[in-house]
Amino acid sequence: MSYTVDPGLYALGKPDDSSPVLVTANYKMSFDRLREALPERDAWILVLDTKGVNVWCAAGKGTFGTGELLRRMEASRLKEVVKHRSLILPQLGAPGVEAHFVKAISGFRVLYGPVSARDLPAYLDAGMKATPEMRRKNFPVGERAALIPIELVAALKAAFIAIPVLFFISAFTGREGLLGNMSTDGVFSIASILGAVIAGTVLFPLLLPYLPGRAFSTKGFIIGILTAGVLLFLWGYDLHSPGGLIGAIAWLLMISSVSACLAMNFTGSSTYTSLSGVKREMRWALPFEIGTALSGFGLWIVSRFMV
Amino acid sequence: MRKLVYLKNVVTLKIDEAKCTGCGMCLDVCPREVLKMNGRHVQIADRDSCMECGACSRNCPAGAIFVEAGVGCAAAVINGMLGRKDSACCCSVDPKTSSPNKSPGSCC
Predict the structure, then answer these.
(1) pTM for the full model?
(2) Which residues of chain B have a CB within 8 Å of the CB of A141?
(3) Is A54 near chain B, with CB under 8 Å?
(4) For testing the chain B interface, which of A26, A141, A278 should be mutated: the one with the most B CBs within 10 Å?
(5) What ipTM score was computed for the predicted complex, to two decimals?
(6) CATH number for region B14-66
(7) Roughly what angle, to the nearest 10 degrees, separates helices A275-304 and A242-264?
(8) What averages of pLDDT result for each successive group of 10 residues across chain A (307 residues)?
(9) Fewest 10 Å CB contacts: which of A148, A242, A285, B25?
(10) Chain centroid to CA B74: how far?
């Protein structure tokens, strides 16, 4: 299945030489959102070749950029199609386009429209004026939830490697014999891994604004600790023997570090993290997560041999 | 929903107020309301909201804004450290395999 649209100039409705020109990426979803936002309107749609990537990401890479825009205008002979000299670009395309350069080369003035295509009718009706709300990019719960499947599946793939390893270790250590170990500690290790994955890839994005801290790792670590606590409580984990207590601490460390690491992965798809911030966060978070995970694993192994 | 803000005082955004002509282009392109017009030139109003997308500096006809633009993506940073290209970043998801449900702009 193809998610691209052929680049070039398209007519929406019955546009003439005074109809607005809207520019978008050749990611099918970007194109469709734009079309659907303008029912019963006449406009030209200029589709840039962004290799099927959405406007924001393509602008970051420069494929939704000044050069491609100028080339595509030239190739579609836009100058002969319309008599006005302005283009409406999605605001999120701005990181890739130098509006003043486009004007200097082509004579076309670049107007940045709203962030979301759904605000286009209001923007057009207001005479190409966007309200502050139209210019704002938030990270609402719907967008955060939409990221869950892809992150969850990726994390589960890694989990299915970790599960047999920890299950095997559980089975052959401990005090309750092979089957006893499997049905107690083995099952709990599976539950813990799945719990960590759910904390980092489901609970974290949903609860993002409400978790304390600013760094994604901090937020992920906290939701991981909470998840681990709930798991240990529900399981009725034995906290009275020294081995049980150390085992519980080990799981707290392992679950929270995995959750923190998975949470950090969301920096890429969030719409408010900066590169400088991510670098700063990773400088402490990555060693911290690896250290916590390894010490948790070490403690767990120790606890398996304690009476 | 309250505005989500990332780390304090980390971004590279700088404004040269002497060069700024007050055209307001940067205010139009910023999706995070980082800047505000203060009389004749632009000022940073909310530094920590900046995500260094680079839209303002690229569209400043006076060259008055500096920002080290980039994508705040942990996977890309790790790949960079390992000397790989940032191909694992969500922004370069193969269009043939990427989820059709992903809304534009919700990625990276």
Answers:
(1) 0.88
(2) 1
(3) yes
(4) A278
(5) 0.87
(6) 3.30.70.20
(7) 160
(8) 90 96 96 95 97 93 96 96 97 97 97 96 96 94 94 96 95 88 93 97 97 97 98 93 93 98 94 94 95 97 87
(9) A242
(10) 15
